[in-house]
Each structure stands twice: as structure tokens, then as C-alpha cells.
Predict the structure.
Amino acid sequence: MSDYTLPFDSIGSADHARVGGKCASLGEMTQAGVAVPPGFAVTTDAYKTMLEETGLCGEIEKQLARTDFDDVDSLDRSAQAIQVRFRSHHLPAAVEEAIRAGYEGMGADMPVAVRSSATAEDLPDASFAGQQDTYLWVVGAHDVIEHVRDCWASLFTARAMKYRHDHDLGQIDVLMSVAVQKMVNARAAGVAMTLDPLTGDKTRIVIDASYGLGELVVSGIVTPDNYSVEKVLMEVVDRKISDKHLELIPDAKAETTVERVVAEDRRKAQCLSDKEILAVAELAKRLEKQNGCPQDVEWALDADLPEGENLLALQSRPETVWSQKPKEKPKSAYATGMAGIVGALNNPIGAKN
Amino acid sequence: MDAQSPMFPSAYDLKAPAGAEGWEELYPYYLTFQPNLREQEDAKFWFCDSQHWPNPFKPFDAVTVEFAVKCLGQYNTRHYLVPPANGVDYRIHNGYCYMSPIAVAPELIEGRVPQFMDRAGHYFQNWPTLLENWHKKVRANIDEMEALEFEKLPETVSVEDVKGGVGLDNTTKLTETYDRAIQLLYRTWQYHFEFLNLGYAAYLDLFGFMKEQFPSIPDQAIAKMVQGHDSDLFRPDDELKKLARLAIELGLADALRSGSVDEALAQVGTRPNGEKWLAAWEEAKDPWFNYTTGNGFYSTDKYWIENLDIPMGYLRDYIARAEAGGTIERPTAELHAERDRITSEYQEMMEPEAQEVFQGKLGLARVVYPYVEDHNFYIEHWSMGVFWRKMRELSKLLSEEGFWPTEDGMFYLTRNEVRDVLFDYGNAWATGGDWIGPSYWPQEIERRRGIIDALSTEAPQPALNNPPEVITEPFTIMLWGITSDSIKNWTGGDDNSSDLTGMAASPGAVEGLARVIRSPEQLGEIQQGEILVAPVTAPSWAPVFGKIQATVTDIGGMMSHAAIVCREYGLPAVTGTGNGSSRIETGQRIRVDGNTGQVTILD
């Protein structure tokens, strides 16, 4: 593997500066045993080589020298000019070759998302980098390479340039990495919470799951299956199977997702096997441990990946509802020693069942 | 069911099965429901203890329920003054044993607390030394029982005794030996409960604390925190596994493979290294083959040491499995690691203050809990094994003297009737006349055998009369797994449904073919990968647990033997289904979910 690309599972902590925030976090999750949609980072080295070998660097500097950052029109013109410059250059052959190899290693004509992974210093909030520099359903090495270049160019939107200018950040010193990541082809997907959202019970992992991509579950259009897993024993202790009438599935040709009616025989079947339920629970439990607090995890089972490697974490956020509630103090002080035993005998727990 | 009628029938309305009429006379008056006490007996709730006594009692065997349950009670009521609980009352009806816990009147509970804290507290504080003393007492008891010998009355008193001025005849020793045997049994059962109730109490404290911390925590998770993996209860099975490994190591596997036990041992003896293995076999026998295939409560129990074909069969099975490259040993290291993982993961979910309390309660439970498992070997297996062997010897002696034609005749007499027989025997020996028994007992025993057989044709009722609003007696909950919920399951009586509910006693879920086993004799029928379905299991069935996928029982709680053994062997178990063994048939495909306590008949 060249210096220009790094698969997610080989990103070590020393690489963080050259793969940007997004890729670094994907790398961290992969290293911790949490599978994410597979892919690779196009490193800042690739970007630097692009700037230097093509002469872009000088062209940009020239353009910047002519820019009045307080004049919106001037800024816009400059931004457009720089982006045109980016698109007028081919990537250096070695960079192109590295991206091509990385992409082809993912499988033939794999639909991927190409998204920017900016280096951290210039990113007070995600909005700065712009949401536009994410390209979905990209197929074929040629298109992937084009979109990597588009990501790079997106560093030079008027808004981004202005921001850097106002904060005295260098315009060319800010480097960008790009993530090339497999589009999830979800056979089933959903959400896992590492506590019971109804009761706050921390000994449970509660999983919502339905066919296809998770959006229909999140938006409530489909009533998902609901499984409850005991977190320590890792056993499925409760399952509610629902009528899952719709599924959202990818349509690579149309480069979008489509809703499809679920066939009668699948609708009321349990959409995950018990083994898969436990795998989702393990994934959520690992993310909770890694993050040190209860988590709300979006996951998917990818139909393109081999069994055992097909469960992917898409997103993990801290759970907020129960975690922010003030802790309930026990009603009375704990009875210890003989007093505890007397209490247990006088009020055995089975009596309350 | 209308509101007026009780949930379960009254004993007074449960007639004897055909052919069993008059069964009441086979037991002492205080063990049966007396006609003139109907009102007060019907006001109590009685549950059937088919966990310990799944089959109708022969009159002699009733001594086990009498001594065991009496001794359970004495510790609650008179030794420790367990604040809310006295003992458990018991009756025999239609051959089965029904139990009714006796609560302490609410106004008296508080007054018992100081004495309980003083007395039980002393035991908790001095557990290891008192337990060491217990082992000495029990061992001495066993040794004394082992030394008892019953001798036929000789033609004459020996000349030495006559000239030595002893002044007593041989009947004296005979009756004294019998009485001593009964007394030693009585002591056995007192020792049995000396620690057991307290062991349960400490466990109950931990259990209640964990349920308060985590209301949905599975019972089995708590059980796993205290479970010992080096229990003496598993030692006999472990010894067989060691012998299997040693046989393979010494190249003796083929010598043991076939033939009777004697033939196989003789074959081993001819081999180089044979002596070494035979020495190990002998070493294992004492005491570990004092191990019953039943539960120790019946005179018909088969003990390994008297039926060497049983351990030999298991040994051969282990040898075959080990030779095929299988692991026969229990994964004790994994079980230990799993126990530690479970403990620390729950602890991490607690607040710091609770963590400290948890450590205290867990610590005590772990000190006292091993007794709950270990005692079973020393009492039910070893002590009872010696007792039954001595009683069988006496029955055989009296059979040879003409009292009854079959060697098991004595067990159709109550223990007090046996005294009468011994007097009859000695009396006629003294007078020089004929003993009367041989003309009385053979037909009486046949009549009684007919009654017991007729009683065995009917399954017991799960309970009698109305249950209380809530079950509060702590030992009823722990020992028998009887809670207000489990009682509801018994009455859930839709026999056509394909679902059964019981206690989630050991985790995991599997599907497989059922094998219904009603007695240890049927254990050989079990095929690899089947699901064992039984009214109740015994710990000594352990060797078959390597073959099965899961267990379903009719009765038993979290601490029942089936539950303990299944957790130890990592098999799913659902206990206390009420009637699983009658509703499920051998060969049916069933799903057992040891996490939820659900059993589903799939066929």
C-alpha cells in the first residue's frame, strides 16, 4: 500500500494527522473490533502530491493573492476559479493508481460513498466542511477518482475560505483526506440501545430491527421487531415480532434507495436470527464500553459481506434520556450483615414476584 | 372455576386409586390427613414435594421424609429462631408427600430477631471452624453406621458370654444395632440441616439485594455468582473422568472396553501397568462411589459402590469420548472466568455505595454457599448409601430366616413394625417356639406391594386447597422454587397448548428431540443430542449430561439439583414446569429456552 491510501483497518493512532477526523474515527472503531462499512482513506499525502506535482499550489496562491476576502463577489469568483483549476488537472499517476487499487480491492464495481475527512484543527463544527462534499452511489474507479478531486476542491468554497481567513488559518496549509467507504447494502438494519429505553434498565440491550436500510425504523414508518438481550449473560430474553410491511433497499443503478413491499412470508418472520441478535448486542456492548456511557447505536447487516463480517456499526451516540436523569437514591440505607439477612428472610424477594 | 371452589382439590376428596384402598394403614397416624381434622387441614395450602419424593413411599422409606422435614423444621423453629418461618408441616396422601410451611405469627417475628442474630450470627462468624467440626461429626456418624453388623441369632449364646457373666443374649445386640441405625439416621438428618438453612438465608440476602439493584436480573445470573466449581458433589463424576484418562494413558482402554465389571478388572490386572490403574480405581471407590443414581430418599436407590456396572458404563462412555478426541472434563477454568466476568459486569453497573454492600453480601454467600452443594454428597449419597446398605442387609437376613420371600420385604414395613419383627424373631428364638412372622408377613407384604403399585399408577396433585395470597416462606421459595407465580403455572392447565412455562434455571436456548425419563434405569436410553425431560433429576445423573442438550423438569427451583448441575455443565434448563414430563413425549421435537423458562412442543 502506498502512502496515498490506507485501509480503515490499518489506520493506527500515528496516522490520525494524515487521514483526518472522520477516517481516524473509522479506524479507531475498526481497531477496537467494531466493524464499520469497509473502505480506505485517501491520505493528506495524496492531496499534497496533487498540489505540488500539478502546479496547483502555485495557481491557488496566485488566485488567493488577487482575492478580497471582504468582498463577497470577489470571494465567490476566487472560489469558483480555484475549483475550476482543481478540475483541470489530472491526479498524479501514482495517486490515481493508489486510489484505483484501493477501490478495486473492495470488489468489482462496488457502490461507494466518497466523503471528505478534514484534518481536525480547522473544524470547529462539521457544517464548515460543507455537507455537499459527500458523494453517494459512486461506482467505478474513474468516478471515484473524480470525486476524490471534488472533495479536495470543496476545501475552497467561499465559506470555507472566508472562515480560514477570519481565523488566521492558512489557506493551503489546511490539508484534506478523503474517505472512500462502501455503500451499505442492508439486508436488515436498526437501532440498538444499551439500556431499556422504557425503564432505563442498564442490564438490557434493546434492539429494533427490520428489513432493509434503517431509515424506515428510525422514521417510524415500519414497526420493527423488538428484541431484549440480557447484557451480562448475553441471552435473548424477550422478542416481539412485528408485521414489517415495507423495506428500504438500495438501487445502485438508479443510485438511490427504493421502498419495496415485503413479501407475505417474510413480513411476520423474525428478521434477525438469534445469533445475529446477539452479534448486534455484542456490538452495542462493545461501543458502550469503548465510550464509557450508554449508547444508541445504528447498525446494519450488509448483504454483500460474508457472514461474520457483515454486521456494521453506522453510528454510535451517547444515550441522553436516562443518562441525564438524576440518580435515584436507595429508599433506605442498605442493610448489611445480619440485619441484611433478617431483612431478606422477613421480606423474601420471591414474595413480590 | 367459580369463585367459591378452591384452586386445588382437598385431600379429603382425593380418593385412593383402584386397588390402593386402605393405603393409610401403611403409614403412622400422624402422617395422614385425619378424618376429624378436615376443617383445619383444608384451611392450609399443601404443595406436593415431588422434587425429593417423586414416587409413592414404601412404608419404611417414609422415614426419610419424617426425619428430613422434621429436622429442617427444628433448626428454623428451635435452634436459630428464623424470624418469620417455623418448619414445614407434611403429610402423606395417596403415597405422595405434601408440604405446608408454618409461618410465625406476625406479632412474634420481631421478638425472635435478637435470638436469631445471636445464634445464626455465631454460625456465620465461625463458619469455617464449625463446618470443619461438621465434617468430623458426619464422618464419625458414617463410620459408626458402617461398623454396624446384623447377625443371625445363633443356636446358643456363646460359651464365652455365658461364662463371662455377660448376662445378655444375642437379641440384645440385634435390636440395639437396629435402634442405633435409626438413631444414626436421625443424627444424619439433623446434621444435614445444621448449615443448610443458613446457607440459603445468606444466599437469599444476596439474591434480594441483586433483585433490588436490577429488577430484571435473571435468577440464574445470581446463582452463577456463587456457584462453586470444585464441589464434592461433582467429584464422583470427575473421578470417572480421571480414571478414563488414566486408562488411555496406560494403554488399558481396550481391556476395559467390554465384559462384566469383574471380567474387565481381571483383564486390566493381566496388563503391565494394570495394577496402577486398579489401585486408582480402588482409591476412587472410597468414598466417591458412595453415589446414588437416585436422590438418596428411597430404599431402591442404586449406589455405584454396590452396582459397579453403573460407574463402569459411564467410564466406558468417557473412554470412548476421550479417545474420539472429545473433551470430557468440565471446563472449570472457563466457568471460573465466566463467574468472575458476570460478577464484575454487574458490579460495574452499581453505584459505588452499592458496590461495597454487594461485596459484603457476595463474600458471605460465597463462604456459605459451597455447603449447599457439598452436603449433598456427604448426606444423600454417602451417609444414606451406608444406611440403605445396612437396612438391605437386615432385610435379607430376615428374609433368609423366613419372614418374607423377597430380599426387599422389610421395606414394606414401617420402621416401628421392624422392631416388632425383631422382637418376634428374638422371642421365638428365646422360647424355642416358631416365629410368627413367616406366617403373617409374606401375604401382608404382597397386599402392601399391590397398594404401592396401585398408588404409583396415579401422578400426584401439584397442590391441595388454596394458596396464600403471596408465598413468603423463604425456604419454600429457595428450596422448592414455589412462588406465587409458579403456582399460577400449575393451574394454567391448558393441556392442549404447545407451550409450557417453568423456571429459567440455566441459560441458553436449543431445539432437539425429547427423551422422557421416569427412573434412573432408563438413563441408558438417552441418545447423543437429546433433551432430557424428567419429573426430577438427581446430581448423579451427571454422566449423561455430557450427552444431552438441555433439561426440562416438572419440579424444582433455582437451587434444585437439576438447575445446579445444568449450570455446571453449561446446559439450558427449565425447571418446575409442573407437568412437562407427562405432556412431552419421547421423540417430540421441542424448544427449550433456559433464559425465559419457556418450553415449546414443536411437533
Notes: Chain A has twelve helices and 13 strands. Residues 137 and 254 of chain A are 9 Å apart (CA to CA). Residues 274-291 of chain A form the longest helix (18 residues).
